[in-house]
Amino acid sequence: MSMNQQDLDPVNTTDVDDVTDAEKELIEECEEIWKDMEECQNKLSLVGTETLTNSNAQLSLLIMQAKCLAAELNQWQKETPKIIPLNEDVLVTLGKEEFQKLRHDLEMVLSTIQSKNEKLKEDLEREQQWLDEQGQILESLNTVYNELKNQVVPFSESRIFNELKTKMLNIKEYKEKLLFTLGGFLEDHFPLPDGKVKKKKKNMQEPTAQLMTLHEMLEILINKLFDVPHDPYVKINDSFWPPYIELLLRNGIALRHPEDPNRVRLEAFHQ
After folding, report:
1. Burial, 44: exposed, middle or buried (Cβ in 10 Å; 0-12, 13-18, 19+)?
2. Residue 239 and residue 237: Cα distance in Å, rounded?
3. What is the largest distance, in Å, between two alpha-carbon atoms of the chain?
4. CA distance 128 to 134
5. Which of 22, 94, 143, 203 has an alpha carbon 20 to 30 Å from 75's alpha carbon atom?
6. What is the pLDDT of residues 110-121, one digit of tens each?
7. Is residue 109 packed enough to be buried (19+ CB in 10 Å), middle (13-18) or exposed (0-12)?
8. What pLDDT does residue 196 have?
C-alpha cells in the first residue's frame, strides 16, 4: 500500500501545481481588469457630467466581468481540489457506481420498451378483431352476391320486346272489352228516342238530323280531349240529343264553355 502511495505522489504534486498556476493566471487577469477599471474611472473624473458614450457601456460590461471573476476566484479559494487516489479499490468502487447507473438507465429503457410492447400488443389484438369482423362481413356479402347472381336472368332484347308486345296486346284487348261492355250498358239503359215516346209538349219539334247514341257522344268527347288537349270543346249540333247533354252536364261528366253555351267538353278525370 505504501508503494502505491509513493507512486501516486508525483501525480498529486502535478495536480496541485496546475491548480496553483490557474489561480495565478486568474489573479493576473483580475488585476488587469482592475487596472482598466481605474483608468476608466480616471477618465470619468476628468470628463465630469458629460453624457454617456460607448466607452461608458464598455465600462459597465467590464465591471460586471470583474464581479463575476472575483466571485469565481473566491469560490476556488474556498475549495480545495480533491484528488482521487488511483488504487484498485477506488477504481472498483467507481466502476460499480458507473455500472449501477448504467443498469438503472437500462432498466428504465427496458420498462419503457415493455410498456410500448404492451400497447402494441393491445393494438394488434384490436386490429386482428377488426380484421376478423371485416372478414365475416365480406363472407356474408359474397354469399348474398352469389345468391343474387343465381337469381339474375340474362338480359335479352328480344325477350323484353316480346313481353312488352304481349302486355300491349293484353291492354288493347282489355280496352276493347271495356268499350264493348260500356256500349252494351249504354244501349240498354240509354237508348235513342223512337216513335213510341210520348211528347210532353205539343210544340216539341221532330229532330231534323239523325241522333247519336250516348256512346257515340262520349266517344267524340273522349277523342277530342286526348287529340286536342288545348281545345277539347265540341260544338253541339242537332245530332246531340238535348236530354243526354243535360244528363252529362248535371252529373259533372261534361262542362260547358264559359263563353259559348253551345260548346261542351269532357271533364278531365285523368288529370
Report:
1. middle
2. 5
3. 171
4. 10
5. 94
6. 999 999 999 999
7. exposed
8. 44
Distances (CA, A) of 3 to 7, 58, 87: 6, 56, 11
The CA distance from 156 to 152, in Å, is 12
CB-based contacts of 236, cutoff 8 Å, min separation 6 = 245, 262, 263, 264
DSSP assignment string, 149-209: HHHPPPP-HHHHHHHHHHHHHHHHHHHHHHHHHHHHHHHHHSPPP-TTSPPSSTTPPPPSS
Of the pLDDT bands very low, low, confident and very high (cuts 50, 70, 90), residue 206 is: low
Mean pLDDT, rounded, of the chain: 78
Query: Distance (Å, rounded) from C-alpha 271 to C-alpha 262?
Result: 24
All 3 cell numbers of residue 55?
466607452
Contacts of 72 (CB under 8 A, 6+ apart): 26
- Cell numbers of 48, please? 465630469
CB of 143 closer than 8 Å to CB of 176? no
- Measured CA to CA, the distance from residue 75 to residue 63 in angstroms comes to 19
Residue 245 and residue 218 in contact, taking contact as beta carbons nearer than 8 Å: no
Distance CA 137, CA 130 (A): 11
Using alpha carbons, list the distances in angstroms from residue 16 to 22, 77, 80, 109, 216. 10, 13, 10, 41, 140
Which SS3 state, helix, strand or coil, does residue 210 take?
coil
How far apart (Å, rounded) are the C-alpha atoms in residues 115 and 123? 12
The helix (run of H) or strand (run of E) holding residue 20 is helix 2-47
Beta partners for 265?
255
- Phi, then psi, of 112 in degrees rounded to 5: -65, -45
Helix H or strand E encompassing 264 = strand 263-266
